[in-house]
Design a protein that fits this description.
By secondary structure, the chain is mainly α. It has one domain. The chain is built from five helices and no strands. Helix 1 packs parallel to helix 4. It is globular and about 40 Å long.
Length: 95
């Protein structure tokens, strides 16, 4: 399976749908979503929201002792969401 990377352009429709519906399969890291060329900002936001939902579910499972070996990456997803907001000028840079 080929993942979308920062340097690879996002193909229309099918790749965009995959990026939004299953961002963990389409990107190696949450920040890759922010920097994905050809992916509209609304799709980037939707992809990160999907990724956040997945990570919250994984965190709940981990908290309940049902970890399956994959570590939750919620913090990384939230950082990517903030970076996207900053890039869009919606939030002040943190720090």
């Amino acid at each position: 399976m080929t993942k979308v990377t920062k340097s690879a352009p996002v193909a229309p429709k099918r790749a965009r749908a995959k990026a939004v519906d299953n961002p963990k399969a389409a990107f190696d890291h949450p920040l890759d979503v922010v920097h994905a060329p050809g992916l509209p900002a609304a799709d980037k936001q939707a992809a990160l929201e999907t990724w956040e939902e997945d990570e919250r579910a994984l965190q709940r499972a981990t908290d309940e002792g049902m970890a399956g070996g994959e570590r939750p990456r919620l913090r990384e997803v939230k950082q990517a969401e903030r970076a996207l907001e900053e890039k869009a000028g919606k939030a002040k840079p943190s720090g």
